[in-house]
Amino acid sequence: MRDYDLIVIGAGIIGASCAERALADGRRVAIVEADVAGGGVTAASMGHLVAMDDDPAELALSRYSIRLWDAFEGLEQAEYRRCGTLWVAADGDEMAAVPAKVARLAAAGIRAEALDAAQLREIEPQLAPGLAGGMLVPGEGVLYPPRAVDWLMGRCRVAGATVVRRRALRLLREGVELDDGSVLRGQVLVAAGSASPVLLPELPMHLRRGHLVVTDRHPALVRHQVLELGYADSAHGDAEVSVAFNLQPRPTGQLVIGSSRERSASGPEVHPPVLARMLERAFRYLPALRALQATRVWTGQRPCTRDGRPYIGAVPGRVGCWVATGHEGLGVTAALGTARLLLDLFDGRAPEIDPSPYDPARVAA
Ligand SMILES: Cc1cc2nc3c(=O)[nH]c(=O)nc-3n(C[C@H](O)[C@H](O)[C@H](O)COP(=O)(O)OP(=O)(O)OC[C@H]3O[C@@H](n4cnc5c(N)ncnc54)[C@H](O)[C@@H]3O)c2cc1C
What is the pTM of this model? Predict the structure, then answer.
């Protein structure tokens, strides 16, 4: 006998989004969270909602998801701001890649425009002189990830979710055993972020650590979220340590500065050499940052799969077991699209985007 239609393990941005969607579909849902909802890597992230176009599957999921975020009523409760994304080209080579990016985004239905050096300085005058130009994606924005989870969990509670503050110890056939020995019966969705392999060791994952810095308040310094065009090389490359300029204005007037990626590092400690490298990179693009006061520095561990694509779907070889994890640096962006895709598969509906690139069965194959 089933207690629930779906038991969601993990209340990060992915689990909360999936639970919210399942409840909207009229399902009986339990959410099992070992700690504070939204307190995992979600709380450590920047919260940009950005379409990445380097991999077609990543573009399909991020575009789909951003559309769902845009249509989500009440998004201001997640401190959402449509500030637009400004991609900056450091030199002629990066600028030469812009028309192809604009075309790829346009083909996916996303408006983007190329900017020359003068236009770039006109819209963000604090950027360093000598940059070659860039690309503006005006429809994109930023939210505050812990608030987004709080808001989604509030919706889940109102819709009748059972929220269990326990650690899931072991998956059963259509059920889960918790750390107090109790058992919940129903189909299970593992959305436990970087801890997912504890429950699903057959789906390999690794972590990529990132540093972020937040400054005191300087509301007029930049208006857009600003990323260097080389960001994708850092996000998708396999360097042991990489940094990329990534700056985000918060509604409070604070600026969040990123980003770094470390392949082998684990644990929450700040690594001063990596932090220094990341900040030097940021100062090169926006020299005025050098004079600001940092109020906090922190790290988070991005959950990654081998091919960089998340696992979304039924877990092969298990009965009544689903997974949604491994979104690396794009889990906030991709959360609502992931939830819709997962629930379409769960309910046997035809998904709006091709689910095969994210199918966990690719690992078994
Ligand atoms: C520095 C940095 C910046 C980032 N910036 C962005 C960004 O700007 N935009 C973007 O889209 N993405 C960004 N990301 C990526 C994003 O943070 C992640 O992809 C996303 O938050 C993953 O969410 P999740 O729900 O899978 O994991 P989590 O948020 O870690 O949630 C998993 C939850 O599961 C719980 N849990 C684990 N094991 C169990 C268990 N056995 N039983 C019960 N509960 C369990 C945990 O307590 C946790 O709450 C960034 C990441 C980092 C590190």
Answer: 0.97
| 10 CB within 6 A, ligand 1 | yes
pLDDT in tens, 106-117: 999 999 999 999
Mean of pLDDT over the chain:
95
Q: Which residues pair with 85 in a beta bridge?
A: 137, 225
In the chain, DSSP assigns E strands to 6-9, 29-32, 48-49, 85-89, 113-116, 133-137, 141-142, 162-164, 168-172, 175-178, 183-185, 187-190, 206-215, 225-228, 241-249, 255-262, 294-304, 311-314, 321-325
Q: Which spans in 73-144 are helix H?
A: 92-96, 98-107, 117-123
Distance in Å, CA 42 to ligand 1 centroid: 4
Residue 313 DSSP SS3: strand
Cα-to-centroid distance, 329 and ligand 1 (Å): 9
Q: Which amino acid, residue 331?
A: G
> How does pLDDT run across 235-265, given as a tens digit for each residue?
777 788 999 999 999 989 999 999 999 987 7
pLDDT over 90 (residue 183) = yes
Query: Of the residues 7, 20, 42, which should be mutated to test ligand 1's pocket, given the most ligand atoms within 8 Å of the CB?
Result: 42
- Is the separation of the CB atoms in 84 and 141 below 8 Å? yes
Nearest to 55 by CA among 317, 282, 358, 269: 358
- 3 state SS of 43: helix
Ligand 1 centroid from CA 8, angstroms: 14
Query: Which tens digits make up the pLDDT trace of 269-298?
Result: 999 999 999 999 999 999 999 999 999 999
Closest residue to atom 25 of ligand 1, CA basis: 12
Atom 33, ligand 1: residue with shortest CA distance: 10
Exposure letters 16-29 (e unless 16+ CB within 10 A, then b): bbbbbbbbeeebbb
The minimum-distance atom of ligand 1 relative to the CA of 15 is 25
CA of 196 to the centre of ligand 1 (A): 11
